[in-house]
């Protein structure tokens, strides 16, 4: 067993990372979110009570843990306040939460800009892209700027000034009347956001230098779990650009987002037994007809953050192999295998055909991907529901073969299999 674990998505998000993180939390002391923002979403169910979380690591429900929102995250202070207040209404004692001081803030102007430009990409409209854009353009506001009111006021003045120009230009480009957009008043923004900052502190959140904190923790022998949001194919560099998010959800993003290089790290890649995608972008194994609808209904494939129906398709091992190359996966957590029960013949994409040529490397080139046709291996399905299976040999022979085929193709062991929605409906190998 390694000291530290990273959990990364191997597809387009929504692989069920929340449940895997929840299971692994027990073996770790500290849980770190290292990238993304309130565009993520998972619902943790504890003793029948649902806790929908978009920003805070799910480890927050266990009072003996420490949770960290790392510097690679873009933080919407309003969402943080809302999530903490909701949690405090439902649970007596939660984990302590720390916040990286270099974390960038999502401001109201980012959501307006996302509303203008994000539509054609199908973003979650949470202001993620514009907040990262401002960060990269070196005009963002960071947690460190909220430590004094005068500094925060200055940062808001500067941020608003440039953003009003950007919004006006973007609205013009998109053919939207500037006057129809929400009004931005700097005094109101300062008042509201300063209040939110005070509330965050009142709720016990402490601001830290994340990397230093983690290094000290490592020296004390603490085990750290890195919770990735989104997934490899949504990575700003390695995903299907431009149909991607604006952060690095891959394992490389961990070093950057946590400001720390953990020794002795193992990487768990989370992969659904089929594929889904929300928003626009390529999807070589997408199922358009009844079969896709069946998987969507049985898998409950609707967005946690936006409620949008997810596009569904067969498992794609070209994608999985690419995710393995980028992240160096030590073990796969294969989720939602039960959703495939009752489908007579299952397909798994092994490679693609482009203009008569076979390719087995995921190019992430949107233009090429629009032309590919997936080549499938056909596998026999199984009838039985899987919920009762607790060891690998309990699974129907066909389900075992499905898993062994994945392992043989990728050369990576499947270490965990999800056989139902409950916390206990899982097989460890
Ligand atoms: P953004 O992250 O809101 O900018 O959205 C960019 C793309 O990433 C869109 O296609 C979103 O649907 C997708 N996306 C962002 N977060 C998630 C997630 O947690 N699960 C699945 N897709 C996501």
How is the secondary structure organized here?
Elements: E1 4-9, H1 17-25, E2 30-33, E3 42-46, E4 49-53, E5 66-69, E6 74-75, H2 77-90, E7 96-100, E8 104-105, H3 108-117, H4 128-136, H5 149-174, H6 186-202, E9 206-208, H7 210-219, E10 224-227, H8 251-258, E11 265-272, E12 275-277, H9 290-299, E13 311-313, E14 315-316, H10 317-327, E15 331-335, E16 345-354, E17 357-359, H11 366-369, E18 373-380, H12 397-410, E19 414-418, E20 426-428
Parallel strand pairs: 1-10, 1-11, 2-5, 2-10, 5-7, 6-8, 7-9, 11-15, 14-16, 15-19
Antiparallel strand pairs: 3-4, 12-13, 16-17, 16-18, 19-20
Helix pairs in contact: 2-6, 3-4, 3-5, 5-6
Instruction: Give the structural class.
Output: alpha/beta
**How many β-strands, per DSSP?**
20
Task: Please state the average pLDDT score.
Answer: 95
- The backbone outline, from C-alpha atoms, is globular
Instruction: Give the cofactors and ligands.
Output: inosinic acid
Beta fraction: 15-25%
Q: Bin the helical content.
A: 25-40%
> Uncertain runs with pLDDT below 50, 5 residues or more?
none
Count up the helices.
Answer: 12
């Amino acid at each position: 067993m390694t000291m530290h674990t990273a959990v990364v998505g191997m597809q387009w998000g929504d692989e069920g990372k929340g449940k895997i993180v929840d299971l692994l939390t027990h073996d770790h002391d500290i849980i770190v979110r290292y990238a993304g923002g309130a565009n993520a979403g998972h619902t943790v169910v504890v003793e029948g009570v649902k806790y929908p979380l978009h920003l805070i690591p799910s480890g927050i429900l266990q009072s003996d843990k420490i949770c960290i929102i790392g510097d690679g995250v873009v933080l919407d202070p309003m969402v943080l306040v809302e999530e903490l207040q909701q949690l405090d209404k439902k649970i007596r004692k939660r984990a302590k939460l720390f916040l990286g001081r270099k974390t960038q803030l999502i401001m109201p102007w980012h959501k307006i800009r996302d509303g203008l430009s994000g539509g054609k990409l199908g973003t979650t409209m949470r202001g993620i892209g514009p907040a990262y854009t401002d960060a990269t353009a070196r005009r963002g506001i960071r947690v460190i700027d909220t430590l004094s009111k005068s500094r925060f006021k200055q940062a808001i003045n500067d941020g608003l000034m440039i953003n009003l120009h950007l919004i006006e230009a973007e609205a013009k480009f998109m053919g939207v009347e500037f006057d129809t957009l929400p009004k931005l008043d700097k005094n109101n923004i300062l008042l509201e956001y300063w209040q939110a900052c005070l509330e965050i502190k009142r709720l016990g959140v402490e601001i830290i230098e994340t990397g230093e904190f983690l290094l000290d923790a490592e020296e004390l022998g603490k085990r750290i779990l890195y919770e990735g949001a989104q997934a490899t194919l949504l990575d700003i560099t390695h995903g299907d650009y431009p149909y991607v998010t604006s952060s690095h959800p891959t394992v490389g993003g961990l070093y950057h987002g946590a400001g720390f290089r953990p020794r002795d790290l193992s990487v768990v890649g989370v992969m659904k037994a089929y594929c889904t995608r929300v928003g626009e972008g390529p999807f070589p194994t997408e199922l358009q007809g009844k079969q896709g609808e069946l998987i969507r209904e049985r898998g409950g494939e609707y967005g946690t953050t936006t409620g949008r129906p997810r596009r569904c398709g067969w498992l794609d091992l070209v994608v999985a192999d690419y995710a393995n190359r980028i992240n160096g996966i030590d073990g796969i957590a294969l989720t939602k295998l039960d959703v495939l029960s009752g489908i007579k013949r299952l397909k798994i994409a092994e490679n693609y055909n482009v203009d008569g040529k076979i390719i087995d490397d995921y190019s992430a080139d949107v233009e090429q991907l629009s032309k590919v046709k997936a080549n499938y291996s056909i596998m026999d399905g199984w009838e039985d529901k899987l919920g009762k299976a607790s060891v690998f040999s309990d699974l129907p022979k066909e389900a075992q073969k499905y898993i062994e085929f994945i392992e043989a193709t990728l050369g990576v062991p499947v270490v965990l299999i999800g056989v139902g929605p409950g916390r206990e409906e899982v097989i460890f190998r």
